[in-house]
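Lab notebook, design round three. We kept the backbone fixed and only want residue identities now. Task for the bench partner: fill in a sequence for the structure below.
Input C-alpha cells:
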C-alpha cells in the first residue's frame, strides 16, 4: 500500500534524533507483520497508532493487517519517516551539510524537531551544561525562512516583471517559485488567505515578503517540537521556558532512550509493556497481583530493577508515557491525516475469497481528501466503475473522507 505522507526528523547532533527515529521504527515488541524497517540510509518506516475500524463493528479478534498490527482495536499503521541530517546554524549559507540538509527537508510534509531539552549539548551538539535549548527551536525556523526568502529575493525584480506581464494571480506567481519546496497551489492559497493581504504582489515591500515567507513556512512545514531527555535534572526549567514561548499544541515531551530500553526489556521477556502507555509490569508485580508464575516473565537483576523504578518515577508517572508514540501522533494530527480502509467486500470487510480476516489494508490520506483522491492513491489511473461505502451504499467520488465517514470503501473497477 502507498506510504506517503513523509514525516521528516530534524535535530542537531546529540539531540537524540537517532534514538527517536529508532524508537519510532522498532517494531520488535509488537505482534503482526512488520516487513519494512529501513528503506535507505535516510528513510525508514515508523508506525502510527490509530483507532482501527474493526472496533466499531466488534471485529477486533478477526482484524489481521497486511502490514503493521492491530491489538484490541489499536492499530499500528506504517508511515514513512525521513532522517534529515546536517542541521547546524548557517545551513542556508552552506555550512555543515547545508544545501543537502535543505534539499532533503523540502520533501517532508511535516517535521519533528528533536530538541535536547536538558541543555547539555551546545548549538553544534558538543557537551556542555546550561545551554538554552529554546535557541535551537528559533534557529531551525530561521534557517528555513532565510533559505526560502534568500532564493525569492535573489530574483524578485524579474518575478515582479513577469507577474505583471502575464497578468498572473499572486497564487500562480508564488507557486512557480515555491513548487521546488514541494508546495502546491492549495498551500500557497491557504498562506495568502491567512495573511489577508490587500496590496498587489508587484507592490510588496521586503517586510510583506518576510510575512509571506514566514506564513508559507508554517503552512508547508508544520513542526512538532519533541522535547527530548525529559528525565534529566535540568529539563524542567527549560521545558517551562519553552512552553511560554511556543504553541503548547506543538510540544511533546519525550525520552527516546527510555522507550528503547523498555522495548528491549519487553522483547527479552523481563517486563510487559505497551508502547505509549504509562504501565510496566514485572514478574514481581504479577506475583503480587496473584499470579504465582509471574506471567512467565524473567526475574530482573538489581541494576535493571532500579533503572525501571527510576524510569517509572522520572518519566512514566510524571509525564504519562515516554512520549515517543505521541510524537508521531502529534505530527499526524497536525497534517489532519485520515485512516481509510479499502476492502473488497463491503459487507464482510474482507479482502475477498473465503478469508474471514477483516480490514487487511489501511492508507493514510490528508484532510479534505476526496474518495477520488483515495482511489488514485491506491489504484493509480485504473478506471473506477463505482464506489461502495458501509451498507453497500454508493458513494460519490467527490465526497470528502473523514474518520467515521467514507473511510471504509470498496472500489469496483470499470473497463
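Proposed sequence:
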Amino acid at each position: 500500500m502507498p506510504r506517503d505522507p513523509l514525516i521528516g526528523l530534524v535535530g542537531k547532533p546529540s539531540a537524540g534524533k537517532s534514538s527517536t527515529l529508532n524508537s519510532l521504527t522498532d517494531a520488535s515488541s509488537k505482534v503482526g507483520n512488520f516487513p519494512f524497517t529501513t528503506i535507505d540510509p535516510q528513510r525508514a518506516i515508523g508506525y502510527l497508532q490509530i483507532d482501527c475500524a474493526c472496533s466499531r463493528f466488534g471485529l477486533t479478534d478477526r482484524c489481521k493487517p497486511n502490514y503493521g498490527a492491530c491489538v484490541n482495536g489499536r492499530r499500528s499503521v506504517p508511515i514513512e519517516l525521513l532522517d534529515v541530517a546536517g542541521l547546524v546554524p548557517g545551513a542556508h549559507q552552506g555550512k555543515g551539510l547545508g544545501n543537502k540538509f535543505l534539499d532533503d527537508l523540502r520533501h517532508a510534509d511535516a517535521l519533528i524537531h528533536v530538541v535536547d531539552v536538558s541543555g547539555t549539548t551546545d548549538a553544534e551538539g558538543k557537551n556542555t551544561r546550561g545551554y538554552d535549548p529554546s535557541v535551537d527551536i528559533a534557529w531551525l525556523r530561521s534557517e528555513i525562512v532565510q533559505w526560502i526568502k534568500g532564493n525569492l529575493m535573489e530574483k524578485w525584480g524579474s518575478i515582479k516583471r513577469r507577474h505583471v506581464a502575464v497578468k498572473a494571480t499572486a497564487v500562480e506567481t508564488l507557486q512557480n517559485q515555491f513548487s521546488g519546496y514541494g508546495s502546491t497551489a492549495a498551500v500557497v492559497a491557504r498562506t495568502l488567505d491567512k495573511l489577508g493581504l490587500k496590496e498587489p504582489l508587484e507592490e510588496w515591500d521586503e517586510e510583506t515578503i518576510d510575512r509571506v515567507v514566514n506564513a508559507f513556512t508554517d503552512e508547508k512545514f508544520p513542526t512538532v517540537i519533541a522535547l527530548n531527555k525529559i528525565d534529566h535534572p535540568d529539563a524542567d526549567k527549560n521545558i517551562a521556558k519553552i512552553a511560554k514561548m511556543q504553541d503548547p499544541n506543538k510540544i511533546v515531551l519525550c525520552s527516546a532512550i527510555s522507550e528503547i530500553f523498555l522495548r528491549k526489556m519487553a522483547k527479552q521477556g523481563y517486563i510487559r509493556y505497551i508502547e505509549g502507555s504509562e504501565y510496566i509490569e514485572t514478574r514481581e508485580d504479577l506475583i503480587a497481583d496473584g499470579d504465582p508464575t509471574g506471567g512467565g516473565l524473567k526475574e530482573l537483576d538489581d541494576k535493571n530493577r532500579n533503572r525501571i523504578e527510576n524510569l517509572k518515577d522520572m518519566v512514566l508517572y510524571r509525564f504519562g508515557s515516554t512520549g515517543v508514540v505521541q510524537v508521531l501522533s502529534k505530527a499526524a494530527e497536525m497534517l489532519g491525516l485520515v485512516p481509510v480502509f479499502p476492502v473488497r467486500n463491503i459487507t464482510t470487510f474482507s479482502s475477498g475469497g473465503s478469508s474471514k480476516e477483516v480490514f487487511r489494508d489501511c492508507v493514510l490520506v490528508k484532510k479534505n481528501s476526496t474518495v477520488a483522491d483515495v482511489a488514485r492513491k491506491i489504484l493509480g489511473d485504473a478506471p473506477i466503475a463505482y464506489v461502495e461505502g458501509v451498507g453497500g451504499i454508493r458513494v460519490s467520488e467527490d465526497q470528502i473522507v473523514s474518520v467515521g465517514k467514507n473511510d471504509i470503501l470498496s472500489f469496483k473497477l470499470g473497463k
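Keep this in mind before ordering anything: The radius of gyration is 24 Å.
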